[in-house]
Amino acid sequence: MEAYQDQEEDPGAPERPGPGEAREGRPSPAERARLMRERNAALEGPRAVEAAREVALRQLDTRARSRRELLGAIASRGFRDGVGQEVVARLEAVGLVDDRAFARALVRERFAARGRTGPALVAELRRKGLDGDTIDEAVSTISADDEYDRARRLVEDRARSVRGMPRRAAYRRLAGMLARKGYGPDVSARAVCEALDALGSGDGEDGPWQDGEAGWGA
């Protein structure tokens, strides 16, 4: 009876390409990317602008983008200096790119969906390449009352996870969660203490708000 051999066991079988390697007769992904950048770098004038515009529009098809994000996407594909600037300027002129509107929309979405605020939002907006004035304006759209209400809802959503814990430990866990989302110590202390009071959490320990322990990073 003839013994069965799979491709790995057959010494005469061709080796399979590893990650990033080309199959026989086909360029690898890295080679295709290099060729694409070379072709784009060779484009001039209207042809370069039109090709870069297609790159930008494909980026915008998936989600809104900041000016810096689009410039980076175009540059990474090998287009000459200045092509990206021209394309993005044209898109700004017709309202398809608007950093201020982009920042405000991102703040609203992250605050509503994930409860992020303050420094957490600032850090994300900076990663998108937005300038300080644009960031400050967008983050300022969150009022103090809205921030407290959102912090309280976040704590209430997590309250069951600390039921039965010592009050000090429960405070640390909930305040640490709020700190990671960008809430300041005053808002966090108020939201957490009120939630724990409503929950009836406690085992006779003094609360951390009495001995000044804020729970950051705990």
UniProtKB/TrEMBL annotation:
Residue ranges of domain RecX second three-helical in the record: 98-138
Domain RecX first three-helical: 52-91
GO cellular component, one term: cytoplasm
Signal sequence range: none
Function: Modulates RecA activity.
PANTHER family: REGULATORY PROTEIN RECX FAMILY PROTEIN
Family: Belongs to the RecX family.
Protein name, per record: Regulatory protein RecX
